[in-house]
């Protein structure tokens, strides 16, 4: 310390602050995310299904950073001792791939016929449609090749089928590469998303829940296509009615319907815009935080706990870490484990213990509507229990009086 003051006295010029900035701000975002994922762990790509689930819970910083870093959440959940039940059976995957190959056979003739019939019946029939080669090196190369093919198809006119194109979407400061089943370019230069699913369409209708999930996934593709279109002049139109293709009546024949995804697109765009930037979340984590699944369970538990989560029962059908987060939420007594609607009704009461204490009149502001409603509910419950006890007392007394002579008789 004395040496520091001595050197300062020899020069009146203030020395610049040489304290190094936090390491997380010196390193590039990609380097930081690679550190979080693990230096030798390949990144897991963020697909449209994961994006739709991420957008459904925009307040969950834990899922945002894990998906942004490309962490395999299924492996992470297994390492934490709370394995996920996610995954599609190999039989379902094989059947789905076989059905998709059948629909796209012969240059996508059947798929284009369905697109013409369901999306654009007024256009010329799709005879001799173009199917450009989208092969390129890496996701960035494939994304650029897809954008070029879309631009050329929009200018050329006629029908064009893009088989498994690659699109990029900025999600909270990180690029997500998306691969829809197909994109169709109409003769007027407009674009439509095609979703091919293996669940059946019986008598022209499919399971509403599965159709809704497909619509939310397709809405992500529509958003990504709109970003590509916005870079062109003039910008091609991106249809908000997507083509959903499914097996017809449990057969290998294809059936299709047009699904309007404007609502899903609006919701997804709004929720993605609300996501906290990934670099902001990464900047709050302790140095050395790593989610590599080969780390000790104690270290992984601490790393995951360092990122706040926003658990809700809906996460069980959308996130591989849901079981782990549910256990932590229950152990902490968080009311979010009871559902988002109830959490919204309770206002500033965030734990079950706080709710019970407010209902008993021990804590809470009486003018708070949530506290007042809890105390009113507690009073009604107590009154109902008291009334039930009073009504049951005479019956139990009469039963006891009738049972006494019987007991005496039995003893004789």
Explain what this protein looks like in three dimensions.
This protein has 412 residues and is an alpha+beta fold. The protein has helices spanning 2-10, 23-26, 29-37, 48-56, 61-68, 73-79, 90-103, 105-118, 138-156, 208-230, 262-274, 278-283, 297-305, 322-331, 340-345, 352-359, 369-411, and strands spanning 160-163, 167-171, 174-178, 182-185, 191-196, 241-247, 254-260. The strands form two sheets. A five-stranded mixed beta sheet has the order 1-4-5-6-7, sandwiched between helices. Strand 6 and strand 7 form a beta hairpin. Helix 4 (48-56) crosses helix 11. The longest helix is centred in the last third of the chain and has 43 residues, at 369-411. The chain is globular, with a radius of gyration of 30 Å. The N and C termini lie far apart (101 Å).
Distance between the termini: 101 Å
Average pLDDT figure: 84
What does the main sheet amount to? 5 strands, mixed
Strand composition percent: 5-15%
Structural class: alpha+beta
Strand order of the largest sheet: 1-4-5-6-7
The shape, in one word, is globular
Radius of gyration: 30 Å
Residues in helices, as a percent range? 40-55%
Number of DSSP strand runs? 7
Give the low-confidence spans.
1-27, 403-412
Helix and strand pattern: HHHHHHHHHEEEEEHEEHHHHHHH
